[in-house]
Write a sequence for this structure.
């Protein structure tokens, strides 16, 4: 593994672990917390490690080689368009009165996971285009 | 674009990983260049030419494709 990717994992893994811990903390303590200020604090705390994850991703994209960067940027473009298209379609269906009971908070919270998941799938497909066993 | 990177690497008895390390790129990138699936940028092409001590036009041939 190249140094740039080792550094990425060193930055990404602790940030994701912190995110999971803080989201669990919010899920456990959030409903029991009375004061609005404390609830807001618990809700926003997971954003700190998410910001660190975004920083790690930006740094790895900037520092990897030109083909790796091209693959990642293509995958990000596909993921952004796919997620946007999916959410737009979902919004239109909700506007049409399709009877799904979905909270606005859940819809907003799932934007980033959908973006990351579609990025993963898109990256696999884009990278395959440049791979060869020859 | 056709190129002679694989033959030149073979002459040096380097693996793709060896060449990747010398160029500071991934092995995947070397493989993609050798198989013609990816055309390197001008700076990388010059780096390859310098490493093999040859003019760039003797390594990369824009007139044909693989």
């Amino acid at each position: 593994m190249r140094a740039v990717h080792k550094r990425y994992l060193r930055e990404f893994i602790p940030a994701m672990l912190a995110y999971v811990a803080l989201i669990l903390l919010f899920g456990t303590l959030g409903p029991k917390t009375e004061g609005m200020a404390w609830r807001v604090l618990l809700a926003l705390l997971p954003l700190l490690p998410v910001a660190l994850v975004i920083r790690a991703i930006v740094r790895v994209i900037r520092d990897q080689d030109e083909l790796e960067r091209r693959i990642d940027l293509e995958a990000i473009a596909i993921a952004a368009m796919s997620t946007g298209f999916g959410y737009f379609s979902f919004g239109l269906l909700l506007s049409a009165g399709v009877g799904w009971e979905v909270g606005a908070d859940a819809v907003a919270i799932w934007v980033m996971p959908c973006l990351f998941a579609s990025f993963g799938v898109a990256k696999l497909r884009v990278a395959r285009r440049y791979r060869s066993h020859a | 674009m056709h190129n002679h990177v694989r033959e030149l690497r073979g002459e040096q008895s380097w693996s793709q990983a060896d060449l990747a390390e010398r160029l500071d790129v991934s092995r995947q990138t070397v493989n993609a260049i050798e198989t013609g699936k990816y055309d390197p940028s001008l700076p990388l092409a010059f780096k390859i030419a310098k490493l093999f001590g040859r003019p760039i036009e003797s390594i990369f041939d824009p007139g044909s494709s693989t």
